[in-house]
Design brief:
There is one protein chain. The protein is an alpha+beta fold and 141 residues long. It has one domain (2-140): Jelly Rolls, CATH 2.60.120. The chain is built from 3 helices and 8 strands. The protein has helices at residues 21-26, 59-71, 87-97, and strands spanning 2-10, 16-19, 34-43, 48-54, 100-106, 109-110, 116-122, 130-140. A 5-stranded antiparallel β-sheet has the order 1-8-3-5-6. β5 and β6 (109-110) form a beta hairpin.
Length: 141
């Protein structure tokens, strides 16, 4: 059994859903030797999240952003407001979506579906750089 772990710093992005599958794959060159295994991707923040969703139609991330902005509105009477109007809604969205995703690995590649990709869900207007911990566990060739 093999273990790999990489810490990745993602460049700051605007609020929204951003496809990061290519960055994740590029950070894990050792994954090519894994015949069967799992990738666990964890984000080390409480105002951003990770998800797997459709990566073909650019309307999907836009619609997801609109829906989550409606679910966790900035004009809700939050108590935690010291870090700005977008902060507490960001925590709500991150709690709903989650801080990690797990993806199977088959023959050295992520076994995502045809239309699936890994997304950074940035919930702050200016969230800054985001840190990921990528852990691969599997059976090497």
């Amino acid at each position: 059994m093999a273990w790999l772990q990489e810490h990745v710093r993602l460049a700051p992005r605007r609020r929204g859903f951003h496809l990061i599958t290519p960055e994740v794959e590029a950070a894990l060159p050792g994954m090519a030797k894994i015949r069967i295994g799992l990738l666990h991707a964890f984000i080390r923040h409480t105002s951003a999240s990770l998800c797997i969703n459709e990566n073909a139609d650019p309307d999907v991330p836009r619609d997801l952003e609109m829906a989550f902005n409606e679910i966790a509105r900035e004009d809700f009477p939050y108590v935690h407001t010291l870090e700005g109007a977008d902060d507490m809604p960001a925590h709500v969205k991150a709690a709903m979506i989650g801080d990690s995703v797990t993806v199977p690995i088959a023959n050295g590649r992520l076994a995502l579906g045809t239309w699936q990709g890994i997304y950074l869900c940035e919930h702050r207007d200016r969230g800054g750089p985001r840190q990921l911990v990528l852990t691969v566990h599997g059976e090497a060739e």
